[in-house]
Amino acid sequence: MSLKLTRTAQQPVLTIESEVRYRTLRHPTVIEKMVLRLILAATREPELADQGLAAAFETELGLAEAERLIEPAVRSLCDVRLLNPPVDLHALSLAEGRAVMNTPLGEWRLDPRAESYLARGQIPRRAMVRTLRHVFDPISQALQPAGSAPSERIDDRAAPALRLPIAEPTLEDLGERVRAHLPEERHGWLTPDTEILEVRSGLPQHAWQPVRLEITVARDGTVTVAAPQSPSVQRWLGQAEPEPLWPLLSELLSAPAESVPPGAAVSAQELSSLEPPSPAHEPKPLQLDLRAQAHAVDLLEVIEWLERRPRQMPMPRPAALPSSWTSMHIPAPGEPPQIGVAGMMRLHWAGQPRLIPVQGRMNPQEPQAAEVATQLTQAIGQTLARIAAPAAQVMRLWFETPAQVLQAWDRHADSLDDAARMESLARLLEEMARRLPPARIAAEAAFGTQLQALLSRRSPIDDEAGRQRHLAATCTLLQVLRTWPQPLRARATDRLIEQLPPLQQLAEARDLRQVLGNDALSLPARLLSPTLREDLLEAELDGQPSGCGPHGLAEPIRQFGQHWKQIRRDIDPVLLESASNLDAPSPEWRHAVIRRIARLEAAVQAGRQHIDTLSQSLGLMPARLSLMDARLGAIAQWLQWHLAPALPHAEPVRVLDTSVLMARPDLLDRVPDTLRLVLPRRVIQELDGLKRAEPLDSDGSPERARLAAQARAAIAAIERHQSRLIHEPDHPELWPENTMSNDQCILSAALFWARSEVRLWSADRNLRNLAQSCGVAAEDAPRFEPTPSGARAARPSKSETRR
């Protein structure tokens, strides 16, 4: 048996802060060039040595007071050490410094590099200082700028025993390394002409970088250490002496296994404070710490916690289990188990033996490790098969497929009723999602098929309490499914809605819609009970949102609500509220009829038709619809009893007023036969009163005689056209007031014919306005041309009249 361990050690990383003194080159000014050339010429020509510097400038350039011109240039050359003055210019004032400019040329001294700088046409600037930070790896001897070094670090509080024993360089060595590395770096101030004067490195700051080590222990105890992710550490391990590494190796071999992340192992002590997984659904590894006992203590305590009652079941010990076996670790559901071992082992590394306590994992590629894992998982499965709690079957997810876990749960939940089974299934799916990403579970086709089959089962519901429990369990399951992938969630939601009993209350529909969330699922009409349908209709008519989202009857109810708003605008609310008792309608009710009589019948007919259509869609006649239909029926019946029926072929009806007959006595002779003429009885009475007028007025004018003649002419026209006239009495039931004037009586006759295409002919403008306010069209009689059928008949003789 061989062991393969993965451990984390620490390698030192040094952060170095260095000060770099440097200077760059620039082009000298004309004065600086002349100063250097004059002093250089004085060194070659002795006769110039006694001539003063300022005097030489005055001779060459013909200038006066050259001290003022050359003094700044001389100070600049002295600052960069190219020129050594006879005295220190920094200690002199400006006037004293100008006096020094008269010193003979032989007393000035040039730096040996001045001639080469003058030949190149460049001189150095003043020295500057830069602070640089570097990261130095003592193992790989690599030096990098701090900005480009790896950012992964371990703080300095880690145990020193886990650090690689590596010697560190001295400060002088670090400074030389930085100076040698500068040409490879990129800095804005660093050019090929930059001169590095000095590099001083301070004390390095220590940090620690993690390095993964793979330790393999062979059957004979030979230890092999490798660092596959760090070639430099791998080279260092091959060259390092074994003696200083044995303490580190002992600590690494006896340290707990690092393949279990902190807090990821499930144990009895941590079970009470177990937290749900992160939103990323990272699987929590399952740690079964058996401690070489014959009972699966931690696993049974997990099941104990799920069942909420004490329980302990013995589990058979695998025959291939090694004596040093301590635990089995499954990193994630569906992955191969890792068998943990612990004990004292004699190890050999680089030819040196040691007796060291070892904790590690068996190599999963070995047949013995695979055999132990197989026998152990079978034993756990047999133990779980004897557990009665269906929720405990989620532990199978660590070594079985999700579909197999669902089948095992189904065997234990078969005896439960629908509500309890769905509640248990919701808990199972929630626990499965905590251990595996739902997308990974849903990717298994067998799991989706098995889940659909489970959701298709349904038992009869006997009472209201059972229906409410079934609805609550369905909402719980739908809430759990909201975190699962959309295809599986959509299929499961459709199947649950199919099995759901009808909803009885609007609150139940709202709760169901809240659980469904943003799913664009329309509740089928089958799911809406008669009571709920009435509630949905009431909410729509009252203008309040139902809150249950789209459903199978949403469109018919919405359309009826829109139509009903239009009907209420066409029918005065007074008519609807008072339509239940029309034996003695109030004046307000009759006034409302008069104002809307032209469109009242069409609105009533449309309203009853929409009520009939909606009742057929709902499959019932709600009380509110029945009341609406009754009121509309009462209005329609009243209109049928108190209004003339509509004429066939939509013949137009014209109601004649006294004024139009008085103004145009020959009107009846000119009206075509296509018009039906209605003569109110009150018009005949008015004409009878007008024909009895005296021949002359009291003041002697012939106005009364003229009116009487017009009245008699109108009466004669009426007598000639009796066959085509419809005589209409007064209709006080159509007028809101108890007493009626002559004009109101004439208008009531026009209202009586409102079911036809009626129009009032009147020369009285005020009567026309009154008719318009009552919804009856009114106008002055048009001018008709004489027709043969409308020609004036010959007046009879007196003898014929006497006969």
What is the terminal separation in angstroms?
A: 150 Å
Mean pLDDT, as a whole number? 75
> Helical percent range?
40-55%
The percent range for strand residues is 15-25%
Count the beta strands.
19
Class from secondary-structure proportions: alpha+beta
Query: Main sheet, how many strands, which sense, barrel?
Result: 6 strands, antiparallel
* Count of helical regions: 29
Rg on CA atoms, Å: 56 Å
Uncertain segments are 151-161, 257-317, 789-803
Q: What would the principal axes of the Cα set say about the shape?
A: elongated
Work out the oligomeric state of the chains in this entry: single chain
Question: Topology, please?
Answer:
Layout (H helix, E strand, L loop, with lengths): L2 E21 L1 E2 L3 H15 L8 H9 L5 H13 L3 E2 L9 H7 L8 E2 L3 H7 L2 E2 L3 E10 L4 E4 L25 H11 L13 E7 L3 E13 L5 E4 L4 H9 L2 H13 L31 E4 L7 H11 L17 E6 L7 E12 L2 E10 L5 H19 L16 H12 L4 H18 L2 H5 L2 H11 L8 H18 L4 H14 L6 H11 L13 H12 L12 H17 L2 H5 L9 H32 L4 H20 L9 E5 L1 H6 L3 H4 L5 E5 H11 L11 H18 L4 E4 L13 H11 L4 E5 L3 H9 L3 E3 L18 H5 L1
Parallel strand pairs: 15-16, 15-18, 16-17, 18-19
Antiparallel strand pairs: 1-6, 1-8, 1-9, 2-5, 3-4, 6-7, 9-10, 11-12, 12-13, 13-14
Helix pairs in contact: 11-12, 11-14, 12-15, 14-16, 15-17, 18-19, 19-21, 21-22, 25-26
